[in-house]
Amino acid sequence: MSENLKNWQPRPWPERKVLEGRTVRLEPLSSEKHGDGLFEASSVPDVDGRFAWLPDYPPQTRAALQPWLDKAEASEDPLFFTVIDKASGKVAGRQTLMRIDPAYGVIEIGNIYWGPLISRKPAATEAQFLFMKYIFELGYRRYEWKCNNRNEPSKRAAERFGFKFEGIFRQHLVVKGENRDTSWYSIIDKEWPALRRAYEAWLDPGNFDGDGQQKRRLEDFRAEFGA
Fold this sequence. Notes:
By secondary structure, the chain is α+β, with helices and mostly antiparallel strands. The protein has helices at 31-41, 47-50, 62-74, 122-137, 152-161, 192-203, 218-225; strands at residues 19-20, 24-28, 79-85, 90-101, 106-114, 142-148, 164-175, 178-188. Helix 1 crosses helix 3. The chain is globular, with a radius of gyration of 18 Å. It starts with 18 loop residues before the first strand and ends with a helix. 35% of the residues are buried. The mean pLDDT is 96.
């Protein structure tokens, strides 16, 4: 039986608000407040590899970054947030809510740059979780993750995070002078309650040893809670 959506109403547009976690804080991107930190986070030895699948290029100088910052701060869609590593207080990266469709309750996480402070660490998982928690609490029905079909790390991350693979859009985009076949993933509202329990259990401080290493994988908690 199909879901009855006769009383469906458009969902609110996401706000520029701080999203607070235990290891990270997401702040609406501010050129003045975050510009220097974003440049520092994007000035690391392996930056070319980290930007390989992004639509933009790593900034060569702080001045060269400024036009991008001004555009990002003014943008409503994508809606940019800066990721703050709470342990150090430093800017660790940025991510966006994008392709925002309140009429149908659909939204995507994208433009993700997680620098060395948080990449492949619990903080990166929490940064993603804070977005997911926020949009489902706003009543959105569908949360999307898309990436170049050749981007194997991103595809693995989507699957670890609990996104379901839906298919490939062939010749979907041209990015940096190359064809992009896009892999589509999603989480829908019915899957959120179990996923939330799994994430909260995984992110609990008791799940990590004195060296910050996980005791149980997120995938283990997802299996336990049926997510």
